[in-house]
Amino acid sequence: MTTTSDLTGKVAFVTGGTRGIGLETVRSLAKLGATVIIGARDPQKGNEIAQQFKQDGFNVESIKIDVNVHQDNVAAYQYLDENYGKLDILINNAGVLLDQENVSIEVVNRTSTLSSAILRDTFDANFFAQIDLTQILLPLIRKSDAGRIVNLSSILGSLSLHADPASPIYGMKTFAYNASKAALNAFTIHLAAELRDTTIKVNSIHPGWVRTRLGGGAADIDEVEGSRTSILAATLPEDGPTGSFFFEENALPW
């Protein structure tokens, strides 16, 4: 799978870009020459990080956004429209895991007792917010000559693997999180099909099991490695895939 290595003139927006995979995604996109806007729930932290990038010679800015808040998503559109008039790369990176603190400890399947509050809060952040933001920003992405939408999913959203007792994730039944990522994958498939006759590519990616606050300390790759698949999907060439689900260069089953 080939990629584009020069993003000069491209504008990218990364939600949840102040830490973890999101922060490393911002760093990599900036190093490739893109102007990167960090979507930060904490505006002070976002501005501090953006300022550090600027001191290092990169074009990085930050705006306040809670993707669960519709007006914040509208404000993001207005900022991007007024300052750039387009959006080339959208990385839907923000997300939550509320079933338990992380997936690095033994997972107890609580599907039958999981509260509706956890289910709703998880879907709000991992599914509905991603759709709302993407739909709002899509007119700007349509103005790009090669728009890329990257949805941060997870291998835990694979229904095929969860149904297979022999699969390596069969025991990882964090119901709310897994179901929200499966739903996000459905959004990827449907939006990619709608946009198939445009230059926009829409893909779901699995970043790997990453040592982050969400992934836990026992995960097998660091945050830099965890950002690689996001960058791969963000820099796909004209003949790259759309409506796909992959980790690095490996296709994953839905």
CATH architecture annotation name: 3-Layer(aba) Sandwich
Contiguous low-pLDDT stretches (5 residues minimum) are: 215-219
Q: Overall 3D geometry? A: globular
Q: How many domains would you count in the coordinates?
A: 1
Structure description:
The chain has 254 residues and is of the alpha/beta class. The protein has one domain: 3-Layer(aba) Sandwich (Rossmann fold). The protein is 40% helix and 14% strand. The chain contains seven helices and eight strands. It has an eight-stranded mixed beta sheet, with helices on both faces. Helix 2 links the parallel strand 2 and strand 3. Helix 1 packs across helix 7 and helix 3 runs parallel beside helix 4. The two termini are 20 Å apart. About 2% of the residues have low confidence.
Indicate the topology.
Layout: E1 11-15, H1 20-31, E2 35-40, H2 43-55, E3 60-64, H3 70-83, E4 89-92, H4 116-141, E5 148-152, H5 159-162, H6 175-194, E6 201-205, H7 223-234, E7 245-247, E8 250-251
Parallel strand pairs: 1-2, 1-4, 2-3, 4-5, 5-6, 6-7
Antiparallel strand pairs: 7-8
